[in-house]
Amino acid sequence: MMKEIHKGPTPSGGVSSEIYYFDSDMNPVDKKLASFAVIRELDKDGNLIQETRANLK
Question: What is the pTM of this model?
C-alpha cells in the first residue's frame, strides 16, 4: 500500500489524513519498503491544513 486514508480528527484540527510512502529517492513505494512518509491533514472541504514529512528509518 503506497497510500493510506484515515477518517477522523487529526492533531491539527482536520477531519481526515492521507499518508504517502516513499523510498530514499522519494519514489512511491509500499509501506513495508518505505524510508519516508508524508502525512497530509485535510479539512472538511478537502483543503490541506498541515503536511508533515517523517523519516521512518
Answer: 0.89
